[in-house]
Amino acid sequence: MYNNPLFLKQIKRHEGCKKNKDGLHVAYRCTAKKLTIGYGHNLDANPIPGLILKEKDTINEEQAERLLKADILACIQDLNSHLSWWITLNEARKAVLINMCFNLGITKLLTFKKTLHFIRIGNYKQAAKNMMCSLWSKQVGDGIGGYFDRAEELAKQMQSGKWQEV
């Protein structure tokens, strides 16, 4: 999945990045006040071994891509450890869970008990509805029908099993 171009395009769009005029990724404090670089890599929780970065320090695109793929792989490992049934989902639905895990972390994702239950039993319509009724949905978008709404896009993708906005 970490090499799936549809998924990579989607998660990069959802995570966004800050670049300087030279096109280098700049370390910054995200809305949760975490030191972040590249495509949503949390340096406070996951420092880069052998590299000490502070605000306004930079990395290149290749380094940002490597961090992204490592973070995605970590999410996949977390999902394999905690939700063994997730591997039965199609690629678009797997991408939703990886995306949510990437954004929330596995601990917070696991608090979506009803949503995860509905996904596990194949009631994707109800799972999508639960996703949209969560606090998370209000934190990662600008409202239903808005220009950018990560939760709405992922809920539609979960319900339909088809890639959205890629």
From TrEMBL:
Its EC number is 3.2.1.17. Pfam families: Phage_lysozyme (PF00959). InterPro entries: Glyco_hydro_24, Lysozyme-like_dom_sf, Lysozyme_dom_sf, Phage_lysozyme-like. It comes from the Bacteria. Transmembrane segments: none annotated. GO terms for molecular function: lysozyme activity. It is an enzyme of class 3 (hydrolase). Keywords: Antimicrobial, Bacteriolytic enzyme, Glycosidase, Hydrolase. One of its GO terms (biological process) is peptidoglycan catabolic process. The keyword Hydrolase applies. It catalyses: Hydrolysis of (1->4)-beta-linkages between N-acetylmuramic acid and N-acetyl-D-glucosamine residues in a peptidoglycan and between N-acetyl-D-glucosamine residues in chitodextrins. PANTHER family: T4-TYPE LYSOZYME 1-RELATED. Belongs to the glycosyl hydrolase 24 family. This is Lysozyme.
